[in-house]
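# nightly structure sweep
# worker-07 picked up a monomer target from the shared queue
# config: single-sequence mode, recycle default, output format = structure tokens
# input follows
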Amino acid sequence: MTKVLVVDDSPTEIYQFKDMLESLGFEVITASNGRDGVAMAAAEQPDCVLMDIVMPDMNGFQATRQICKGEKTSHIPVIIVSSKDQETDKVWGERQGAQGYVIKPVSGPELVAVMKSVMV
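# output follows
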């Protein structure tokens, strides 16, 4: 079963992603901030990370950079899932190592298509 790590500080967003992805057959683990997301990615070795941007303490760009450059996590694809829809945000996300960028709200089929395109 494909394991997905959802990193988002909104309990509502986490619930929605977990519900949607589990109904599509994915195993979902969660973290409520960037720092925990980085630690969880190293410990759990998910097949994919869905990363929010706007979070306290460590934002999604910082967490994405740490995951994508980490010795134990650089192989894990990160997809930024955010309500920030400016082109500069997408470019900055790619520069941090993100392999995908999806604008919230996102549908299950759209999200799964992006996830499949980045997972090898």
